[in-house]
Design brief:
Elements (H helix, E strand, L loop, with lengths): L5 E10 L4 E10 L2 E7 L8 E4 L1 E6 L8 H8 L4 E6 L2 H7 L1 H11 L5 E6 L17 H8 L4 E7 L2 H5 L3 H12 L4 E3 L6 H9 L4 E2 L5 H9 L3 E5 L7 H4 L2 H4 L4 E4 L5 H6 L2 H10 L4 H16 L14 E4 L7 E6 L2 E5 L2 E2 L24 E2 L9 E7 L6 E7 L1 E3 L2 E3 L6 E6 L9 E6 L6
Parallel strand pairs: 1-4, 5-6, 6-7, 7-8, 8-9, 9-10, 10-11, 11-12, 18-23
Antiparallel strand pairs: 1-2, 2-3, 4-13, 13-14, 14-15, 15-16, 17-21, 18-19, 20-21, 22-23
Helix pairs in contact: 2-3, 4-6, 12-13
């Protein structure tokens, strides 16, 4: 990993905000950009631009600790994230948030963690911890915490639940943004949710919903992750609302992260004919401005967080720099692995066939109908259906012909009865 104190990088500099590209030399001293000089001399056939930022991601979904996530992300030109540690907080509480922050500090990468706003996510959920408004306020007071993480409890916002409103008020007092999570919310309900001081949403799955929220002053984060994919539905917003759109993955599984990150979204957007400067605004500039992140934007005296790409079509990353440190080159990470001891608090028993069986009397049914969850590929929303069930030995069972499969939820934290029900659209036959 390069730790040069003073060096220069030459190429075609991409001035995103002024929509200009020109040959230049970028001088780096002690982790900062000391000067940028236009040049008339021949420069390498490569482009220098600010690094990419994932504007909303749960690092835990990559099944990697932060330091390992960084090792992969920098290969694709990502220099920072807006990271919601909700998932580890749901398991380990504040100790989980502390673990993510401390591990992230061990590598040259700009993690920006939020204070989880909904642990547990709903009152129907069994979690390993609870983080109330007092704990959220304490977290927000820490300089490492950049914002209040996604407010999933939008009914609580609309009904002005006291605990929910205290969390939002604490973020406002400390002048830290509040992230949203309100799938399908439209009209007056969306307006009320936004007017509570919630500034972004990454859950829009139709362009009509996104435009509705944009009209009320919200910024839209276009999500393309491993589970939920809204790029195709929303990408035209980037040209129509270039100052109010951002990119995120939300959940990025490890195999998907190996293949690409925000750089892939830039390539796909440009291939659709979108203005490359607007695309790069969403990928590089808007996240830094909205969340006030300590990430450089390729200006003189900024931290030297930038990337070198082969072209502005495929965005193949040649080099990635964070604080002037060369962290990736030609598809290879230069960040060494960091030994870490992880934390957990599982306490669950083996699952037996009897635990997951659904007796006929468990679903008292008229006309043989049973409730079934309808899942949608690439979406997080579901429907409730009533379909004809299949009985065997006085129990409701999987029906692969209709694609009605069983799904089980178990308690990870103490011994409890598991819950089993039915789900549609997985397509498993065996």
């Amino acid at each position: 990993m390069s730790t040069q104190h003073s060096f220069q990088v030459s190429g075609k500099l991409v001035d995103i905000r002024n929509k200009k590209i020109y040959p230049a030399c970028v001088w780096i001293e002690n982790g900062y950009i000391s000067r940028i000089e236009k040049t008339d001399e021949m420069v390498p056939d490569q482009f220098i631009l600010p690094g990419f930022i994932d504007s909303h991601v749960h690092i835990e979904s990559s099944m990697l600790i932060p330091s390992e996530f960084a090792r992969l992300a920098v290969i694709h030109g990502t220099v920072g994230t807006v990271s919601d540690p909700h998932e580890i907080a749901n398991v380990c509480g504040i100790a989980g948030v502390d673990f993510m922050i401390e591990n992230g500090k061990k590598v040259p990468f700009k993690f920006n963690f939020g204070a989880p706003s909904c642990v547990p996510a709903t009152r129907f959920e069994t979690a390993g911890a609870m983080i109330d408004s007092t704990a959220v306020t304490t977290l927000l007071e820490r300089p490492e915490i950049a914002y209040l993480s996604e407010m999933m409890n939008f009914p609580g916002v609309l009904n002005q639940d006291p605990e929910v409103m205290k969390k939002i008020a604490a973020a406002h007092r400390m002048r830290k943004p509040v992230d949203g999570h309100a799938p399908g919310l439209r009209g007056d309900a969306a307006k009320a949710y936004i007017e509570a001081g919630i500034s972004t949403d990454h859950e829009c799955f139709t362009i009509e919903e996104a435009i509705d929220k944009l009209q009320h002053g919200m910024k839209i984060i276009i999500r393309e992750g491993s589970a939920a994919r809204n790029f195709e539905a929303l990408i035209e917003l980037v040209d129509d609302h270039p100052n109010h759109t951002l990119f995120c993955s939300d959940d990025k599984h490890p195999d998907s992260l190996v293949a690409g990150h925000i750089n892939d979204l830039c390539a796909r957007a440009v291939a659709k004919g979108l203005d490359v400067f607007n695309v790069l605004k969403a990928a590089c500039i808007n996240p830094v401005l909205h969340y006030r992140l300590p990430i450089g934007l390729l200006n003189e005296h900024d931290p030297a967080d930038f990337i070198v790409v082969k072209d502005l079509t495929h965005f193949k990353v040649l080099e990635t720099y964070v604080d002037g440190i060369l962290v990736a080159k030609e598809g290879k990470t230069l960040i060494p692995s960091v030994p870490a001891t992880t934390i957990n608090q599982f306490d669950c028993a083996p699952v037996t066939v009897q635990d997951v069986s659904i007796q006929k009397d468990d679903y008292p049914s008229q006309h043989g109908l049973i409730p079934v969850i309808e899942a949608f590929d690439g979406q997080l929303i579901t429907n409730k259906l009533e379909l004809t069930g299949k009985l065997l030995n006085n129990a409701w069972v999987t029906d692969t012909v209709q694609d009605i499969l069983t799904i089980e939820v178990g308690n990870l934290y103490h011994q409890a009865t598991d819950t089993t029900c039915f789900i549609l659209h997985f397509g498993f036959k065996h």
